[in-house]
Amino acid sequence: MKLYIKYDINLACRVILQEQLEALQIKYELMEFGEIEISDSVTDEQFSLLQSNIGRYGIEIINNQKSQLVQRIKDTIIDMIYEKDKLPTTTISNYLADQLNLSYGYIANVFSEYTYTSIENFIIIQKIERAKKLIVEDGLTLTEVSYKLNYSSVAYLSAQFKKVTGLTPSLFKRIVDKRRELSQNA
Amino acid sequence: MDTTHSQMNILLCDDDADDRLFFKEAMTELKVQNDLKVFENGSELMDYLHHPDTLLPHILFLDINMPCKSGLECLKEIREHAKFKNLVIAIYSTSNSEEDIEETFTNGANIFIKKPSDFSLLKKAIHHVLNINWQYHTDGLNKETFFLSL
Q1: Which of A35, A37, A166 has the CB atom closest to B6's CB atom?
Q2: What was the ipTM of the complex prediction?
Q3: How far is A127 from chain B, CA to nearest CA, in Å?
Q4: pLDDT (tens digit per residue) in A88-127
Q5: Which domains does chain A have, with CATH numbers?
Q6: Are strands B111-114 and B148-149 parallel, antiparallel or unpaired?
């Protein structure tokens, strides 16, 4: 006897990933284009189990040392921005080199090779992201935000905000408020 | 977690043939791997987006001035659907009045591009937009407060 089957490879992979991730109690979200967003930290043991469990199905985690380094650079920077007491007393390049125990030249090269942007740009974007959150979610004034993010002046923060978003902080705030109004009325 | 192996999926909707051609050319010089799909009018675009097999693209470029269904109409229609919440939409326009910019963002655009007259400037603008957007995508930044006006 011969059976003819039809299958949806995409669905099959998603189901396998869901089952395997759940079996290891990893909190995740399946994205499109072969990405999984992990919301908690994963232990080395969980990671290698996941790797071998899904390996049986021919599913592989794309992974290499350089991209892990990029993630560590990003984590270090984000930590630095979100926790004020971690703001380095030395330059950021020295700080990163110290923290990661590598030369800054190497760090900067790997970073731009993998992210298509520079560390400087990444830091600015992250800081402005934080500023947005503080404005929108915490309702802080620009003066408070500039103090929190260690800007030398409100004018400098405003200028950087405008440079990154193309909008002044006040126009940004107005748009966010208007959008909220719209979605509440909808 | 590794993002270098994924590609950026880009949609473009523009009724002007020259603009479309130029946009395609700008894509070939992009560092990030990309896949560009092109639509000539708003209805074609909406049909594609609503098709059940369509994967959500990373970014949609919309010309605001199109006959029949304008870019603004498409924008409003897309934002009515929760499934498109995370779709980044870049509008380009010949205007750059603050009212137009504010209206476009209020209606759900993430990016507003004042179309430069010069081709090399437009290319630069497209590359800048795609780089920033890639950042937002790879770092999981909040798209609801993602605005870029240039």
Answers
A1: A35
A2: 0.84
A3: 12
A4: 677 889 989 998 999 999 999 999 988 888 999 999 999 9
A5: 9-63 (no CATH), 64-116 (no CATH), 119-186 (1.10.10.60)
A6: parallel
